[in-house]
Design brief:
Blueprint lengths: L4 E2 H8 L3 H9 L7 E2 L5 E3 L1 H15 L4 H10 L4 H34 L6 H37 L8
Helix pairs in contact: 3-4, 3-5, 5-6
GO molecular function: DNA binding; DNA-binding transcription factor activity
Keywords: Coiled coil, DNA-binding
Protein name: MerR family transcriptional regulator
Length: about 160
């Protein structure tokens, strides 16, 4: 027998909010494969695979409209999506490694009481800015998730399992 998850179970499993999953259903991005006799949304393993694709594409910075377009147009296979994520992660790691090297260089200059040039500081500040923008984006996404949770509480969680 195939495993089925209710929306509340899927939310806990994925870290998404029930409200987000309902919204995805409402806009036709991610709908359940079935409904129980009592009307509860039921998701299967294929649905989980689609949700992984959606989250991967969002992680790449695509808007929900772009994600929907990619998924309906079948422009990317799951392997291509994972490969894109790997490439993006490698870029982030490289950016952080470059920042680390520059910070160590400036720190070394300071420890040796060597002058730190305006170019050194400018380069360091630019690298910090790029790293900081990523941090700000992640914080914004965290706050959006918290606001979704707050919205669920305000809604009274009247139908958490629906």
């Amino acid at each position: 027998m195939k495993r089925l998850w209710k929306v509340g179970e899927l939310a806990k499993l994925t870290g998404l909010t029930i409200r987000t999953l309902r919204f995805y259903d409402q806009i036709g991005l991610f709908s359940p494969s079935a409904h129980s006799d009592s009307g509860h949304r039921l998701y299967n393993e294929a649905d989980l695979s689609r949700l992984q694709q959606i989250l991967s594409l969002k992680e790449l910075g695509l808007s929900l409209d772009e994600v929907k377009s990619v998924l309906t147009g079948a422009q990317f296979s799951p392997l291509e999506i994972v490969s894109l994520q790997i490439a993006r992660l490698k870029e982030n790691i490289q950016r952080e490694q470059n920042l680390l090297v520059e910070l160590e260089y400036v720190s070394n200059l300071m420890q040796l009481k060597q002058p730190v040039t305006v170019d050194d500081f400018t380069k360091l500040l630019e690298m910090m800015k790029n790293s900081h923008e990523k941090y700000v984006l992640e914080r914004r996404m965290t706050w959006e998730r918290r606001l979704d949770l707050l919205g669920d509480l305000v809604d009274g969680n009247s139908d958490d399992s629906n």
